[in-house]
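Weekly sync notes, structure subgroup
Attendees: PM, AL, DS (notes)

Item 1: joint prediction request from the bench team. They want all two components modeled as one assembly rather than separately. Inputs as received:
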Amino acid sequence: MYNHVHNIMKANICKLVLFFFIKAILFIPIPAFAYTFYTWSPYSLGSASISDKGVFQLTGISNLYFSATTSASNPYTPFTGGGGITGATYPYNTLNNAIYANFGVGTWHGAVCFGPSGAYPNDLCFIAGVRDNSRWVNYLITVTGTDTPALPNNSITYATSTTCTSDPSTRIISFTPENNATTTNPVPFEVRACVNSDDLSTIEGVQIRLHNIDQNVLFLGSLSPSDIVLLDTGVDTGGDFEFSTSTTLGEGNYRIEACINRTYFGYGAGSLFGYAFALNPFADIHNCQSHQFIVGTSTFIGNISQRIWGETNSALNGLSATSSEALARTCNPLGSSFDIRQCLAFLFIPDGQSLTSAFEDAKTGILTRMPWGYLTRFIVILSATSTSPLPSFTTVVQVGAGGDLTPATTSITMDMNDMITGGASVLDSIHDPIQGKSMRDVMYPIIQLIVALAVIITIIADIVKMSKSNSQHNVS
Amino acid sequence: MIINLLLNVVVLLLGAVFSMLPSVTTLPVILNYDIDGALVTGMGQLRTFLEAFWAIGLMFSGALIILTYFSVKMVIKLFLGSRAP
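Output from the run, pasted for the record:
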């Protein structure tokens, strides 16, 4: 009995591990097999006050339609281009279960239509094209302070640059603030990307998220602030993609992530599940980059996500040339920069330059000594990235009469480097006339997929075989 | 600062102890056969080959993943014996 229960438990654990393994490998989100129906919300009239033109957020909402206007009598006027509201992501943005909108100084009337999850809000919040007011909730939004430039202003431009012309592959070229930068308000954001026209059908769009990482100090994920979506837009034009905006942020540590997202299989009306269930494996684009930056005079001290010594140390080095200097400065009780918190931190946080030189000393002084030095040298050779030309063979052939004392000769050379690498570059230079893709561009993701499937099937087959033999062993 | 100090002391002591051993910069030449040169050239040529035949490179990566899986499995079996799943 015990063995039977044990086997069942083991089989279930195996299945669970297998499931998450496949999910991790293939990036397959768990499909939503059932809808979560929300009843029409009994929300009452709400209000929100924002200082200094912040971002108005409604969180924890599954599906909604949002409008805002200066008119109190008709709060259902669509916000796009009206009433001084300078921008929002989408009117029915369900990303992160939150809505984001920006307002100038003044009093605004917003209205939110709460709808069931998974339904297109327009079909539920409007009856025959007329808004069903019973399903809308009004919000009074008061914005005080100084009216600063709008965020996001969605100033997307398509330009032409030599960077994109010389390398037209779809990618994020650059974005600011730079990594580990210290900025002051208003914080400028700028993203430059290249979008290849051939990829327009396989990329979902460009997204920029901003996250305050100060409150991760104690791993309190649930208390961490939500992401702020600065930009979430589809891209329908190839070439240079540029977006810039600026905003005022509170002092602290922030992480900005810029992504070019690829499309999902199964997405759209009439699809198998009604939801996306797998990343498009034929799109070799899922380019995300993130930067961390400081606003004001905050430091990175005490932030969990920066506890990796190198990162922390590089951040601390920003305060001073080395942590030793910083230590001398912050630990002097008579000095003007005395800070017991930083002093303690600098006591234990190693200095990057000293660590690097210590490791270098260890490598040259210890790891290169006989006999383990041979292993170190072997690893260095294996991990190197340099290439060597392939060998060429030359043969000398005698020509003319066989009896000559000094026969004429000629040589034949077989240059493998020219044959193989030259042949490969010739093949790569041939592009199909319609889409302009080389054989490598076309075949690389397909072969990658086949190899990935072969690896997964091999491992799964081995796990299943292992499970079967264990069961038989237990029965016997 | 404290960690720097400890690391420097450890490196200093180990460096002093092992300083009597000869330093190795290249692999040895045995019977006039330059193992270091052969490995450096051979690995460089292999990389050139895999750059040209990128499909073989992909398969090589896949094979490495499978080998890693079986290696991990063998290590688990080595430590857990019959109790290994």
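Discussion: Strands of chain B lie at 29-30, 33-34.
Action: AL to compare against the crosslinking data before next sync.
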